[in-house]
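Deliverable D5.2: sample structural annotation.
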Amino acid sequence: IIESTPPGARFPLGSGRDPDIGENSLQNYQLTPNPLFSLVVRESPDGTKQPELVLEKVLDREKQINHHLILTAVDGGDPIRSGTAQIKINVTDANDNPPVFTKEIYKVRLLENLPEGSLAFQVKATDGDEGTNAEITYSFSDIANSARRVFALDSRTGDVKITGPLDYEEGKYYEASVEGKDGGGLSAHAKVHIDILDVNDNAPALSLLPILDPIPEDSVPSTVVAVIKVRDRDSGDNGDVSCNIDGDLPFRLEPSSENTYKLITASLLDREKLVLAKALDREEAALHELVLRASDSGEPARTGTARIRVLVLDANDNAPVFSQAVYTVRVAEDVPVGSTLVTITATDADEGLNGHVKYS
């Protein structure tokens, strides 16, 4: 009997035979008490009694597949004699159970560096029916194109694999709906929420905006030379960046705003004289090559670098210096007029007109 059979349905049973006659012949049938089935005895015009099994309540194969009853035929003699037959009822499946997902919402967290082809997660649904009525096919019923490019669902197993590159910086969150449909056409739906977790896969990048180029050597300390912007596409500690300058140079970085620094001139300590030296001295270094280094706080940390060439412009900060402080010349009194008595020289460390020496 299929489980979808409505109550009230009748199923004729085999008739008993009794060779006696009259009251000694077959008079009635009895059925083992059962809440699901009852017995009706129908009498034909020739007096033959035909038993029929009546379904009283809805069957449920998922609760009980088999039912065992005993049909008894009794006569009216004294003593009463009887015969029995077994009734074995097999309840066959009807597609009366839709698929049920193991979760209403699947919450998934994936690292963005998972390789393509990796198993991201699995959806699973069960069906209380059997056979094709319990065979479930999975599909995405609602999914954005951005998610469809990176996830693929196996219709048979419910496995969801990564088919494209995950990138936290491009997509932090995906949402989809999954449908499970059995062979009889009944279906169920579940939501999938996918969070992409950041991995420190981006090094800091530095961009420069020169302010003074070249810079005069007589610039006062804290003169802004350039503005540096640092950008790290990662998040959290992976995007938390600090910046510094390599080497002992007359410049320092000063935070300006979020991820922005000012490169400014700075006085240096003269270790021999233990005093602060002036920030810039073209005569010592006309060109400074700076290496800016930005590092994030990820594990392991990533580093980005940038180079700046700072040309120092001359200022007239050096007086001419004679080759000697005193020139002593011995001249004979009869030396001809116009004779060269002595050559004096002076040098100036500056350049251009600032270093051109005139004598008087």
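Annotation notes: Helices lie at 145-148. The chain has four domains: 9-90, 100-197, 205-313, 316-359.
The annotation will be released with the project's public dataset once the embargo ends.
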